[in-house]
Amino acid sequence: MFQVKLTTRSYEMDSLGHVNNAVYLNYLEHCRMQWLYAHGITAVDFQRTKTYPVVVNININYKRELTDGQQIMVTVEELERSERKVIFSQTIIDDKGTLYADARVTVVWLNERRQVIPLPVKTFPALFKETHEN
Q1: Strand bridging mode 52-62 / 99-110
Q2: What separation in angstroms does the CA of 130 have from each of 40, 65, 104, 107, 127?
Q3: What domains appear along the chain, each with residue ranges and CATH number?
Q4: What is the pLDDT of residues 19-28, one digit of tens each?
């Protein structure tokens, strides 16, 4: 499991005084991008190879509201993999382990013509070094 620590910010609050629901999605994406960086992969690599990971489905469960200045941890873990998609499990928790949100995120890879392609295992071996049963 990969994790990133964040602090909620005042400009992320909505009129009810808690973090806007769409911001949770930003936190999840930030964690996935940091996971890629930790594997030595950046957006430049996607442009160079003309292959791009794209979220095609996300199901998020909001458990508790986040407020301004909270220290949180966002996690990402590969749950399942097939030839053409990866499903990730993600959570947003605090330092006590209290769950604020969990999500299941499906990612596919596209080529430059925006067509779904098999996962680029040979192009990005660091991402796909572990094998998973589907």
Answers
A1: antiparallel
A2: 16, 35, 20, 17, 8
A3: 2-117 (3.10.129.10)
A4: 999 999 999 9
> At residue 87, what is the residue type?
I
pTM value is 0.92
pLDDT digits (tens, 9 = 90+) for 80-91: 999 999 999 999
- In sequence order, the 6+-apart residues with CB closer than 8 A to the CB of 89 are 76, 77, 78, 79, 102, 103, 104, 105
State how far the Cα of 90 lies from the Cα of 107, in Å rounded to an integer: 13
> Cα-atom radius of gyration of the chain, to the nearest Å?
16
Confidence check: pLDDT of 131 > 80: no
With a pLDDT cut of 70, the percent of the chain lying above it is 96
